[in-house]
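Re: the request from the purification team.
They wanted to know what the chain is likely to look like in 3D before they choose a buffer screen. I agreed to run a prediction and write the result into the notebook, where they can find it.
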Amino acid sequence: MRKALLAVLLAIIASSEIIQFAQAQNNTGSRQLCKRESQKRMDKEVVLPDIPRFPGAKFVSGQEAASKEQVVCAYTIEYSVPKRSEPQIIPWYFNELKSGGWMINQQTSHSVDASNEKTNAHCNIFYDTGDAKNSTLHVNYVITPKQSYSGSL
């Protein structure tokens, strides 16, 4: 599943659209996601504009990537969640995404995949069973610009 997700993310990053910046709130105030070409590890959580954090989830690590032409902005964020929360994770995200205007593309007992035409974003959220106390929640978020047509028909 991870290989398939990585392949999808790489295909999106290779597209030829121009990035449109999304506004987000983080601990230091308002900023733009993926301001320039980058591929860096995040040392603190970035609050994604339309993906809520699961209650009780603790930021572990993250990765931010933008292509040279800023075609796509992609985030992979990992959280630690109490193992006892596993049965609530996917139903909670399903409800939050659906009520936030996301279209659910696919859902399993361990994952939800959704797209948001309004923000031109895509997310894939899943969890891995970890140790006896905690599981790892993965949030993958990709945003691309909306295309506009300015030519004549």
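For the purification team: The chain has one domain: 2-143.
Please add any questions underneath this entry.
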